[in-house]
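User: Please fill in residues for this 500-position structure.
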């Protein structure tokens, strides 16, 4: 303060001096200008001196200067590690890569499969997953116990056509192990341009050996609502995910079906991995009476926020909901809401069990962190995390619905023996071609069944399963599962009772 005061006093003296000697300016202009010049030099010197004194005081005085960002002792170790590597590592380091790695490591330490740090490229893919379309194989995945697991394939996408199912574990992509990767990192490897090929190594629970599955990537349109009339005024509507326009799509489809005479509805949430919370709330409000709860959200301090139905949901509209082990997150919110707040019956299998809520934060460089912020509870306060929702009517699909995938690149022919031959024999039996045995040995009877199948489907009848023959066999099996959908049949039966 003394330096500043001195400068202020000096400025006052200057003004006083100039005022008192104004009348002498014309008389002694030369002398006056020389003195003024000296004075300016002195003033400039004092400014420099004051700057130096101030900097010295801030550097070594008792009160330290506050730099950009508050100093935090908990990061001392992190800074020390960074400086040690930067100064001592034997190669030049990529600063950006180190910082991204530090953030990624911090996120992984949470041991939460739903919390991810995403690079710029990964964040772009994350945002595209809820947009109109993207390119890839079309499957929702998550990291679980160090493995990358399929939550659900998207309806009609290459992943579904290749036979991938919920709980399948992807161990490798194009020969590269996914061990230790986050789901976001795995997605970045699996996705790619339309028409390109990717080979996944799949381990299905209950099978001994992994199977390599080649898949051709394609455009994955995010059309999320499919509907049709099935019988006796009953419609079936399938919601495949909860994206930006799902509630709008559902309203349009229901209006269309009502014009076709819909009097009751089976809402199919099977293999629906979830999506946007606000879409789940909006759709739940269509079926839950106004004011009744859809869900509760509880933060880490135990504070609970309730979300009631905002629309005039019609509880008298006959409705049954289908769920299975691929129904997760937003699907479970909807299932829990209609079950507990509108008395709707659930049919199928126990759901996946994801009871947490995530939010995403973009950084200035367009990278992103998606992290868990709370847990959600059903209207009755049940937390279904890792437990799932139990249906009112538990109904399994036929045993052949869980058959392992067959690698279409692998040749299955006379005298070969493997688990894939066993799967092929069971598939042939399921669609009406008796192979004579189901023990995994490819004999003459199995060859005859393959030739009959190939002939009926306009394929080269060489008795060898490979390529198009394998793809067609798995396609026909999917059709058989759809035609003999025991869960849908039970849902229709329950709905008819509701409609009486």
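Assistant: Residues filled in for all 500 positions:
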């Amino acid at each position: 303060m003394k330096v500043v005061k001195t400068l202020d006093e000096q400025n006052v003296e200057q003004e006083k001096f100039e005022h008192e000697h104004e009348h002498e300016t014309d008389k002694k202009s030369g002398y006056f200008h020389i003195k003024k010049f000296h004075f300016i030099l002195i003033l400039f010197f004092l400014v420099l001196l004051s700057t130096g004194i101030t900097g010295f005081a801030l550097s070594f005085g008792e009160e330290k200067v506050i730099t950009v960002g508050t100093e935090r002792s908990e990061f001392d170790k992190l800074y020390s590690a960074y400086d040690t590597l930067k100064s001592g590592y034997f190669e030049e380091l990529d600063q950006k890569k180190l910082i991204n790695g530090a953030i990624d490591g911090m996120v992984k330490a949470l041991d939460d499969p739903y919390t991810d740090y995403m690079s710029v490229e990964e964040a772009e893919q994350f945002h595209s997953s809820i947009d109109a379309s993207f390119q890839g194989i079309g499957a929702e995945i998550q990291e679980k116990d160090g493995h990358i697991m399929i939550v659900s394939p998207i309806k009609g996408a290459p992943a579904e056509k290749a036979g991938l199912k919920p709980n399948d574990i992807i161990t490798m992509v194009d020969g590269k192990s996914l061990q230790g990767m986050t789901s976001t990192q795995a997605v970045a490897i699996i996705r790619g341009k339309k028409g390109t090929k990717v080979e996944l190594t799949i381990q299905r629970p209950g099978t001994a050996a992994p199977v390599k599955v080649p898949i051709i990537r394609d455009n994955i349109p995010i059309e999320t609502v499919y509907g049709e009339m099935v019988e006796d005024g009953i419609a079936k509507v399938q919601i495949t995910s909860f994206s930006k326009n799902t509630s709008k799509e559902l309203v349009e489809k229901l209006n269309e079906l009502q014009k076709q005479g819909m009097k009751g509805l089976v809402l199919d949430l099977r293999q629906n991995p979830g999506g946007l919370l606000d879409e789940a709330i909006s759709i739940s409000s269509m079926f839950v009476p106004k004011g009744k709860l859809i869900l509760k959200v509880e933060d880490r301090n135990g504070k609970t926020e309730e979300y009631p139905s905002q629309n005039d949901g019609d509880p008298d509209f006959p409705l049954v909901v289908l769920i299975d082990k691929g129904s997760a997150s937003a699907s479970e919110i909807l299932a829990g809401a209609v079950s507990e707040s509108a008395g709707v019956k659930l049919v199928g299998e126990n759901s996946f069990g994801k009871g947490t809520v995530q939010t995403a934060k973009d950084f200035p460089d367009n990278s992103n962190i998606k992290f868990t912020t709370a847990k959600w509870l059903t209207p009755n306060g049940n937390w279904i995390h890792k437990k799932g929702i139990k249906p009112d009517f538990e109904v399994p699909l036929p045993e052949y619905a869980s058959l392992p995938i067959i690698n279409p690149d692998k040749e299955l022919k006379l005298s070969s023996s493997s688990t894939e031959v066993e799967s092929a024999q069971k598939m042939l039996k399921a669609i009406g071609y008796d192979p004579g045995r189901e023990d995994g040995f490819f004999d003459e009877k199995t060859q005859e069944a393959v030739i009959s199948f190939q002939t009926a489907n306009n394929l080269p009848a060489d008795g060898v399963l490979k390529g198009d023959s394998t793809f067609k066999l798995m396609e026909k099996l999917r059709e058989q599962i759809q035609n003999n959908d025991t869960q849908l049949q039970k849902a229709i039966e329950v709905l008819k009772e509701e409609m009486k």
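For context: The chain is about 40% helix and 20% strand.
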